[in-house]
Amino acid sequence: VRPVEHLALLHRILDPAIPPTPARAVHRVRRLGARHLAEALAVDGAAFTGSTDIWRFDTSAFAEACDATDVNRRRLVRRHGRTAGFALTGRTARIGFIQRLAVHPDHQRVGVGSALLADALAWLIRHGARDVWVNTQPDNRPAPALSRRHGFVPRHESLAAPPSTPRRRSAPLWPPDRHPAACGQSVDPAGRRVIN
Predict the structure, then answer these.
(1) At what angle do helices 142-149 and 112-126 cross, to 10 degrees?
(2) What are residue 46's phi and psi, to 5 degrees?
(3) Are 20 and 118 in contact (CB under 8 A)?
(4) What is d(CA 12, CA 95) in angstroms, rounded to the nearest whole number?
(5) Residue 153: enclosing H or E segment and its boundaries?
(6) What's the CA gap between 165 and 28, in Å, rounded?
(7) pLDDT 10s digits, 94-145
């Protein structure tokens, strides 16, 4: 199967002694509950306008992304009475993933993405993740710049995204050497999924 597109891959080792980059205190990060999902998906649509299908989230893709890791955290930032951005962070074993981070174009470059990313990294560190991965479009310049400001480094290898299917389009794309099975790790044997 020929890939739809290649993805830039960034990585950060998580060390409790090195805290996440502080974000602007003006943005309150709060829980993204069911009542805010439609607003979050509208933000996602605006943030990824012009992108290929693999980058667009609908309710089904969001649910699949939530189920793609053992544990996930959904957070948002509101500005002027509306959802300005959201982040979906996942963790399987001791590996973290920034599964989705979207900021509405009207609210970019004011610290919303930074607040969400700092919150995600702090949560991963608190819960014992050792490293975290994020992938993005190679031509999306703001996303890697934000990640680098928070300690991520680009990896030389890239990922190839397979064609979308209605069911498995949002599973995390594991770097080959970091899949839990390749690292001798196992997923939670109880199969528990916790949403904080």
Answers:
(1) 50
(2) -70, -40
(3) yes
(4) 10
(5) strand 153-154
(6) 36
(7) 999 999 999 999 999 999 999 999 999 999 999 999 999 999 888 888 899 9
**What tokens appear for 110 in the block?**
């004011």
Task: Determine the 3-state secondary structure of 39 from DSSP.
Answer: helix
Task: Give me the amino acid identity at 65.
Answer: A
Rounded Cα–Cα distance for residues 26 and 6 (Å): 35
Tens of pLDDT, residue by residue over 42-92, are 999 999 987 777 778 899 999 999 999 999 999 999 999 999 999 999 999
Please report the DSSP string for 99-141 in residue order.
EEEEE-GGGTTTTHHHHHHHHHHHHHHHTT--EEEEEE-TT-S
* The 3-state secondary structure of the chain, one letter per residue: CCCCEEEEEEEEECCCCCCCCCCCCCCCEEECCHHHHHHHHHHHHHHCCCCCHHHCCCHHHHHHHHHCCCEEEEEEEEECCEEEEEEEEEEECCEEEEEEEEECHHHCCCCHHHHHHHHHHHHHHHCCCCEEEEEECCCCCHHHHHHHHCCCEECCCCEEECCCCCCCCCCCCCCCCCCCCCCCCCCCCCCCCEEC
CA distances from 125 to 8, 115, 133, 155 (A): 23, 16, 13, 21
Residue 179 CB neighbours (<10 A): 14
